UniProtKB/TrEMBL annotation:
Gene Ontology CC terms: membrane
Keyword Metal-binding in record: no
Domain called ABC transporter: residue spans: 33-257
CDD domains in UniProt: ABC_KpsT_Wzt, Wzt_C-like
Alphabetic keyword roster: ATP-binding, Nucleotide-binding, Transport
Family to which the UniProt record says this protein belongs: Belongs to the ABC transporter superfamily. Drug exporter-2 (TC 3.A.1.117) family.
Protein name: Sugar ABC transporter ATP-binding protein
Length: 459
């Protein structure tokens, strides 16, 4: 794809900041290396290098929306500042094809002593608009911002919500070729956010390319064509929003280096605390498993079941594994299509490879685009807790639900985890999008789920 077809091209971009312990070392760095070089000596260094970005590469095609996700401190804002031209890279190249409007931080491009109206003209001029062009769009900008009489008050008196309203109104109403938004929409209320996303959708339809940073994963999968995962300044992955969000959740909720060390530490704690109870618990768990009505049905392999999704995303430390599942509706096992408003049963067989304290079972349903419809776990449901899953034992977990879904394809995610003594979640086996279900036609509603609304007429 040629540069003319891309709005943004990033090739090998890195950014290094010099970090000084104190102002004196900064002064020494300014003076002594010059003296050293003058006498032909190796220059002394009084700073540490902090690499905010390392070798980042990706392209954003024209007319598409790309999301950027990552933990705080991963380099997202630094990358956007480089693309917007307010920061220079230490190495690599950035090619931007089009006029850029960037909403990087609250108050950027505003003079706190100016009124909101005056700042509209100031901000628009920074974006390359003439005064006449700004006046032609002023009514639309003020209508979108919707801050009333405060438009003629100094912006230093504005709340954060009012600031973002005005800033986004200017950026979005000038019809930019490239729009960069860095988490600013998180400040606005729900009504304003809905208006912003409607505007983003219209801009995209008109050919605007959008670079969008958000911690809200649902926004990424709903509004973006592609996504980038940043972690510790490195682009860990570039791809489909749904896949990138799954990997981001891995990093956010427990998938980290040193997982085996954590597992060993927990095992040692369990070994010490559970010596006297192991035999009793093993008998108890085995008896419960034998009594389960699903025991005879769960004697196969997870990946061989009819509704299994081979492109599932799976990870965990394998202290416990979900090894088989059973799905039933209307006495039909592994149904091709789920009937509306009928009860479904999902049962899972879990094997404990290590002893696990107070295991937590999780369940979620998502659309094929990755939007979560429903998410719960045994802890939230106040289910009677299994104190221990003993090593080399198996249990069966089952749940019942009514199919209230609209017609379409959905994916079920399941998982088992526990928490350590510090309260941190330890994922053992997370199987994202591992079971594919198809909901049949419905007549009573449109949308995603049936809320069982009842309409009455009264005189």
């Amino acid at each position: 794809m040629s540069f003319k077809e891309n709005a943004i091209e990033i090739h090998g971009v890195s950014k290094c900041f010099q970090v000084y312990e104190n102002p004196a070392r900064r002064l020494k760095q300014f003076i002594f290396p010059r003296i050293d070089r003058a006498f032909g000596k190796e220059a002394r260094v009084y700073h540490d290098d902090f690499w905010a970005l390392r070798d980042i590469s990706f392209v954003l095609p024209k007319g598409q929306t790309m999301g950027i996700v990552g933990r705080n401190g991963s380099g997202k804002s630094t990358l956007l500042q480089i693309i917007a031209g307010t920061l220079s890279p230490s190495s690599g190249t950035v090619n931007v094809n089009g006029r850029v409007a960037a909403l990087l931080e609250l108050g950027a491009g505003f003079n706190s002593d100016f009124t909101g109206r005056e700042n509209v003209y100031l901000n628009a001029s920074l974006l390359g608009l003439t005064r006449e062009e700004t006046e032609n769009k002023l009514d639309d900008i003020l209508s979108f911002a919707d801050i009333g009489r405060f438009i003629d008050s100094p912006v230093r008196s504005y709340s954060s919500g009012m600031l973002v309203r005005l800033a986004f109104a200017v950026q979005a109403q000038i019809d930019p070729e490239i729009l960069i938004v860095d988490e600013a929409l998180a400040v606005g209320d729900a009504k304003f956010q809905a208006k912003c996303f409607a505007r983003l959708k219209k801009l995209k339809q008109n050919g605007t390319s959008i670079l969008f940073v958000s911690h809200a994963t649902e926004q990424i999968v709903t509004h973006c064509d592609s996504a980038v995962l940043l972690d510790s300044g490195i682009a860990q992955a570039v791809g489909k929003p749904k896949d990138i969000v799954n990997q981001y959740l891995d990093i956010l909720f427990g998938k980290k280096n040193g997982g085996n060390d954590e597992r060993q530490k927990v095992d040692e704690q369990i070994e010490e605390a559970a010596k006297g109870e192991r035999d009793r618990l093993t008998r108890e768990i085995n008896n419960k498993s034998e009594e389960s009505e699903f025991n005879a049905l769960l004697n196969g392999d997870y990946h061989e079941r009819a509704n299994y999704n081979p492109t599932e995303y799976r990870w965990g430390d394998k202290a416990a594994e979900i090894i088989d599942f059973y799905l039933e509706q209307n006495d039909i096992a592994y149904p091709t299509v789920l009937d509306p408003a009928k009860e479904c049963i999902l049962a899972l067989k879990v094997r404990f490879n290590h002893t696990v304290f107070r295991p937590i079972f999780g369940f979620a349903v998502k659309t094929k685009e990755g939007v979560t419809i429903y998410n719960t776990n045994s802890e939230w449901q106040s289910v009677p807790v299994l104190d221990e899953g003993v090593a080399d034992s198996e249990i069966i977990v089952s749940l019942k639900m009514h199919n209230q879904l609209s017609e379409g394809d959905y994916f079920i995610s399941v998982g088992i985890a526990s928490s350590n003594t510090a309260g941190e979640i330890i994922p053992h086996d997370r199987r994202y999008d591992s079971i594919h279900i198809t909901a049949g036609p419905v007549k009573r509603f449109t949308g995603l789920v049936d809320l069982n609304a009842r309409i009455n007429f009264e005189k």
